[in-house]
Amino acid sequence: MDDCACAATASGTASLASFAASELWRTGREQRHFHVADNQVAVFNPLGPVGLAVLNRPALDVLTAYRLPQPLASAASRQLAGLGFLQSVDVLPLPALAQSKTLTAWLHVTNACNLRCTYCYVNKTDETMDETTGLAAVDAIVRSATQNGFKAIKLKYAGGEATLNFRLIRLLHDYAKDQTAAHGLNLHEVILSNGVGMSTAMLDFIRGAGMRLMISLDGLDAGHDAQRVFRNGHGSARLVTRGIDRAIAQGVKPHLSITVTRHNAEGIAAVVAFALERELLFNLNFYRENDYSASHEELAAEDARLIAGVRSAFRVIEKHLPRQSLIAALVDRSSFAGPHDRPCGAGHNYLVVDHDGGIARCQMEIERTVTDIMAADPLEVIRLQPAGFQNVSVEEKEGCRECQWRYWCAGGCPLLTYRVTGRSDVKSPYCNVYQALFPELLRLEGLRLLKWAQTPLQ
Predict the structure, then answer these.
(1) Which terminus of the chain faces fewer neighbouring Cβ atoms within 10 Å, N or C?
(2) What is the pTM of this model?
(3) Do β-strands 152-158 and 186-193 pair in parallel, antiparallel, or remain unpaired?
(4) What is 123-143 written as a DSSP string?
(5) List of E strands, 231-365
């Protein structure tokens, strides 16, 4: 989870009963192998549905034998076919893409904030969302969800600092719970916070309501304090880490959002160690230029610096491999949770509601609203918006169409690419960083699977 709209991912395997005895199968041509231990190899299939698996030597021998097409002759070969590592020669291999069944909505409950982070995209004011607007926003989100066949709604309460309008969050939670239940929709909620001012009462409510909490932490000392500061310029790292530990003590395990800039690239390994020690999930996000942030020259880290910083985090993870997978959250907007052709839901299954009830396509352009909560179907208006960035399929992006990683990064953040290049149909400015880190990420996940899986595939 992070502060963007997550891409839809596919899951599941093919039915073994569907395999015809006369059908010929072969090893997927785009697969890559990564050595993880003696006689253990991680195999990556870019077309999914299971992107990565660890094979022992007998299973790898079976996979290798199918470089020459042949029928499925054993239980092992049928298992490999069910997982997508063997492909029918009669069927054009296509990614196992999924359509999201969840409509995600960002509720911007306040412009106010007790911090002045250097990369924030919000123009800080004292304005807040009022009760009438908030309730109407929930109605609009439910309306679009039901009209477009979604099965669930995910609400992200954000700001500014969302907890400065916690009274409204409580109210909207109760109302959204009633409205989604009345319309047969599942409800998921998360509060995005800077973590410096959360009270025990807030944490108790979050735990009792079954909400999730995301806290931004960019370092344990100077790296964080260089970019997440109070109005007086003082850093907030000490208070944020204290807030995280307070949340854990109250039974709330926050998800950490780590934004990587030139100020903290060398220090993110320490944050990752902090998270792993507490068994917290986290994600690494690369800085995105915006209208209200400090200059690109001040915040953007060059590719080599980003790569080195993330590699340092990988080394920490390798020493303390977690039980839960991190593969979907370690390299910016890319995700190896499953193949996808768009990096996020912007323009497709995502709404951003500002404090006045205006609706934008992405929180990073929240001041460029294209409709409002009074629209009969706000999502339809968002989907039809022709101006500005377009969240197109990776198959439409120049520089991506032939790349083996295309269904895993999906071309990167479309708004960032548009800001940098003026186009939506080209690869991400972070493409070189992604390609350098992906093989190491997959090897790392292979090591984790080997440690925590009951048995490797055999």
Answers:
(1) C
(2) 0.92
(3) parallel
(4) ---S-B--HHHHHHHHHHHHH
(5) 255-260, 282-286, 350-353, 358-360
Listed in order, strand segments (DSSP E) in 194-280 are 212-216, 255-260
Quickly count: other Cβ atoms within 10 Å of residue 315's Cβ.
13
Tokens matching residue 372: 């409002």
Strand blocks (E) in 144-211: 152-158, 186-193
The answer to whether residues 144 and 105 touch, using CB atoms and an 8 Å cutoff, is no
Q: Are residues 145 and 183 in contact, defined by beta-carbon separation less than 8 angstroms?
A: yes
The CA radius of gyration of the chain, in Å to the nearest whole number, is 23
The three-state secondary structure class of 353 is strand
- Amino acid at residue number 13: T
Size of the chain, expressed as the number of residues it contains: 458
Asked if residue 101 lies in contact with residue 150, where contact means CB atoms within 8 angstroms, the answer is yes
Average pLDDT score, the chain: 92
Cα(393)–Cα(407) distance, integer angstroms: 10
3-state secondary structure at position 401: coil
Q: For residue 240, give both structure tokens.
A: 């944020």
Each domain of the chain, given as residue ranges in start order, spans 16-96
Report which residue type is found at 197. Answer: G
pLDDT one-digit tens code per residue, 237-271: 999 999 999 999 999 999 999 999 999 999 999 99
Most confident of the following: 18-22, 173-177, 334-338: 173-177
